Amino acid sequence: MNGILAIALISVRNAIRSKIVMVLLAFLLITLIGLPLTLQGDGTLPGHVRVLIRYTLGLATLILSIATVWASCAAISTEIRDRQIQLVVSKPVRASQIWLGKWLGLMAINVLFLMLCFVSTYAALRGTTTPDRWSDTEIEQLHTEILVAQYKLAPQPRDVREEVQRQYRAARARGEWPEEIPTQEVLPRIERALRTQANSVPAGSSNRWVFNVPHPPPDDRPLILRYRFSLSVMDLDPVSGSWTIGSLQASHRQVETFEQPPRTWHSVAISPDRIEDDGTLTVEFANHADRTVTVIFQPDEGLHLMVYAGGFLMNYFRAGLLILFHLSFLAAVGVTAGAYFSIPVAAMTSFYALLLINAARFIGRIAEGTASGGHGHAHGPHGGWFQDAIHLTSHLVHRGLYAVIRPLESANPLDYLVVGEWIPWTEVGYMFGVKVVLYSGILMVLGAWHMARKEVALPS
Amino acid sequence: MTPSPPQTATTIAEARDLVKVFRDFWHRPKVRAVNDITFEVKRGEVFGLLGPNGSGKSTTIKMMLGLLHPTSGYLRVLDRSPDDVKTKARVGYLAEESYLYPYLTSEETLHFFGRLFNLNAKQREERIDQLLDMIGLQHARRRVVGEFSKGMARRIGLAQALINDPDLIILDEPTSGLDPLGCRQVKDLIRALARRGKTVLLSSHLLADVEDICDRIAILYNGRIQAMGSMHELLEQRNRYRVTLPEELAPDQLQRVLDEIRSVLGAEPDIDHPRLDLEEFFLRIIEKARNEVESQSGATPSHTLASYLSAPPS
Ligand SMILES: Nc1ncnc2c1ncn2[C@@H]1O[C@H](COP(=O)(O)OP(=O)(O)OP(=O)(O)O)[C@@H](O)[C@H]1O
Ligand SMILES: [Mg+2]
Which chain A residue has the Cα nearest residue B23? Predict the structure, then answer.
């Protein structure tokens, strides 16, 4: 323990002495102080706060990530280069203790700087959202829509199975689909069309959605209906319409009329007492357009309900934890890379690994693609098996790679914050398990195993 | 003659048929730095590896510390593999150059290594204080080692090698970079450690150093041991004699002695005046100067062995 601590302290001092790390940290300070003063946003208060969180914190964490990768790659590799490692290894410390000491030192720096980022951004947030600069309604809106933690509910999916079957039989009867096209290809198309239809509201008509609200918020916390629609025509002119909220029989239902442009987010605050006793909330949209235009809500994202779940600060804290876990993973990648390679090579390797992780979804798609497209027989008798072998190898490589990086895929925590969305503790726990315990642990084993085998008196 | 059983009780380190081949990037053999050497270091002795530059001394030492792995052969240190942390806990090592963190002060450096040996704060404080006294850098305890002269850094290196009160002390060219005063002090220190029953293995190419302090030596050349044995065995010339006459001999008495020798030998003997060796002469001059002014900079050792350095259990 004593040894790990000593190595951690050295790793802190090494990082702080690195010129590149110092320059990056200077950028970090400039970002934290300069950006909040200069950023404008779209002129609205929520816009201002979103820009503050997304750009200031986003840029700060990016800088911190780069500094972490560099400092961690340097941690062991420079000691091998400058030979101090020879004295350290001749003392009774295990390779895993050296690894852990280096990693803990870097994490201590990260905790410190991440705290600085989050505290200073929060201070900027408080300092720029004062009543003398913004109207009361804007501040009210800020506190109900962004500076909270809400969970997101999608409307109950409509059961379209019967309707799909009915339409399918009718279409076949009319001979609309040629016999060669199999049933399992036709059904999803009909279903997709039906779902889009269920989210479309032609001019002069209306459509209704039902939300299940399992945990209603306290009485003073409104529910927020967020929506974004597109139009069946190419222009961006505002459309007039209305929302009717609450059951249609209820005497005290809420009606909101508006005239709004497509393709931007809008929201309606809803009082919690509109929720029925059975926990459902019904909303109905009526299209009042005086032209023939259909309003279309995107099936998976276009319409949802935000329900109060807790305060902003705790959510902000959880976002910080998620970023810290990511930095911990980066530090682990760098320390291990530095145990194998000299700095420039280690840094290149680490950045390449991070690139791959960011391309996870893409790699996943390649893996699927090579699986289905792997049996082209159009290449003649000689190229055939060779082509197949290449396809198979490529498929296996991509599959393997995807299996390794898939668990690391995660949403950017700042994306939650800018819409005031609740970050579940389960997500925090899962990411701790994956990034800190599992992946950093595996990297530690790889790094320590190599160091224990390596002849440290030889150059890397 | 019956083969003697392995003398583990008194053998501190043992190498048999040890070979180290350095390879290039493509894994092709490049240098056979250590070529089939066999030796044994016994408890309480000062064992010297003597040899010209590039003869394989540092390579042998690094294998004994687990910093390099032997290509083939058998190597045990303190009855265990050199890689074992239990071995490392009982070994002190001074590297060929001082690989210290340049931004740490003397004190911080020693605390760092003390922590690696898992010494608690109180033990570290005590030992560091005594060690700094011993190596004469008490006045530089808050200066960063990066700005030290080579000899001062070497002294810190020596202090860190002793901080764990080791049973086996491995010193790679302990006197390199030291002034004659420092050389003498280190040599005295090594003798004092040996008197306390510590085992010392050192390497050097300075014959005078080795001659003064080693009990046994191995002479390495080209990775092979060319000669090995106790200093006495190797250097004594049994068929030659030196006669030292008392200082207050009058010229006519000397004449009579010489005449007698001539008549016995029937030939002229070699005669010259005894000289101080330069080291001894230099030390006398410095000692004299030191008595006149107290030095302000550099190293001013206390001439006392750190008292915590214990005799190892027998
Ligand atoms: N890392 C290495 N890679 C390749 N060859 C090496 C390496 N280290 C040492 N050698 C070679 O091994 C041989 C022995 O070197 P070593 O350092 O053991 O000599 P030495 O006896 O300690 O010399 P010196 O008195 O100069 O310190 C030399 O020929 C040297 O070039
Ligand atoms: Mg050497």
Answer: A458
